[in-house]
Write a structure and sequence with these properties.
This protein is of the alpha/beta class. Helix content is 50%, strand content 13%. A hairpin with a 2-residue loop joins β8 (314-317) and β9. The structure holds adenosine-5'-diphosphate. Adenosine-5'-diphosphate (ADP) binds at residues 14, 24, 27-29, 35-37, 68-74, 164, 196, 224-225, 228.
Length: 331
């Protein structure tokens, strides 16, 4: 697919196709010092990493939470790099059976980082296997079945587990308690997004003028991934419809093609708001909204709703979602 066929849905999606992943990898900061924003998190991590290196011990297990695209995977990679450790990455849904986890764990070297993305989607049986691995560096594997069943203890190298989740609330209390460090990533203010857009445009070798930088940063819903994806699309527009330079006018055209309005809302956001309005403003359940707008409940809750709530367009109540007065005005 060329960048001239914008897919607004994909703009907010946590997942990425191959092209998109390569693009993201190219724009990943290469050191903690290069990481823009999240100063408190970066400060904390700096201290923990320095202490672990000084003591010659593995870093405590870390859990990152926050919306898709805020930099959780990036930070996990940077931590491994700063520690000079091996990095092994997987995801919750990929660990279907305990056996999937066992082969990963037994391959870890001392001090290595095991990164599990979407850790809240890991099956409970696999999660329970992780407990002893995280605490005492061993796992008990059950061999054979029935009367011949026996358990064999396998020792592991001391490692650091880094989990990333968009839904911290779904993690069980005993699991959460096994992480020594819990860090929440919040959406980025526009001035930090501006720096991220500038850095990305430099890396891409694209000339983006100041008003265009401002526009991309202000429509990115506080999310570096969305800022980078918008930048990629408007760069295409600039190449096809202009002379390659991203100006404010080019940027406006690109945003329009992507269906992003002045408030950073996409077509699906507007569909969610319209659905609420059609139901008398709510409260209505997430399931009803999902059916009405034709999107997965998880996607709505993880990728769309946080922005609508933060902007004060939607309210989450015990009885369901409600359209606020501000939200009604948008329509
Ligand atoms: P997450 O794992 O939270 O979904 P990622 O770490 O995959 O997010 O980040 C998505 C994209 O955004 C990557 O291309 C990354 O380079 C970029 N990005 C995220 N945070 C920053 C940041 N603080 N500075 C620069 N780029 C960032």
């Amino acid at each position: 697919m060329s960048g001239m066929e914008p897919d607004p849905q994909q703009l907010l999606d946590g997942s990425a196709n191959r092209q998109e992943s390569e693009f993201e990898t190219a724009l990943r900061p290469r050191s903690l010092a290069e990481f823009i924003g999240q100063p408190k998190v970066i400060d904390n991590l700096g201290v923990f990493i320095a202490a672990a290196l000084k003591r010659g011990e593995p870093l405590d297990h870390i859990l990152f939470s926050g919306m898709p695209g805020l930099g959780k995977t990036t930070l996990a990679n940077l931590i491994a790099r700063e520690l000079g450790s091996g990095m092994h990455a997987t995801s919750g849904p990929a660990l279907e059976r305990p056996g999937d986890l066992v082969s990963l764990l037994t391959n870890l070297g001392r001090g290595d980082v095991l990164f599990i993305d979407e850790i809240h989607r890991m099956p409970r049986v696999v999660e329970e296997y992780l407990y002893s691995a995280m605490e005492d560096w061993h796992i008990d594997i059950v061999l054979d079945q029935g009367p011949a069943a026996r358990s064999v203890r396998v020792s592991l190298q001391q490692f650091t587990l880094i989990g990333a989740t968009t839904r911290e609330g779904l993690l069980s209390a005993p699991f959460r308690a096994r992480f020594g460090v819990l860090e929440r990533l919040d959406p980025y203010p526009v001035d930090e997004l501006r720096k991220i857009v500038l850095r990305s445009s430099r890396l891409l070798g694209t000339d983006v003028d100041a008003p265009a930088v401002e526009l991309v940063a202000s429509r990115a819903r506080g999310t570096p991934r969305i800022a980078n994806r918008i930048l990629r699309r408007v760069r295409d527009v600039a190449q096809v419809k202009g002379d390659g330079k991203v100006t404010r006018a080019i940027c406006e055209t690109g945003l329009h093609m992507l269906g992003i309005d002045a408030l950073g809302l996409t077509e699906l956001d507007r569909r969610i708001l319209r659905c609420l309005k059609d139901q008398g403003g709510g409260p209505i359940g997430l399931k009803t909204i999902a059916v009405a707008v034709g999107e997965e409940e998880d996607t709505i809750e993880e990728s769309y709703e946080p922005h609508l709530i933060r902007e004060g367009f939607v309210q989450k109540t015990p009885r369901g979602r409600k359209l606020t007065e501000k939200g009604a005005q948008v329509l």
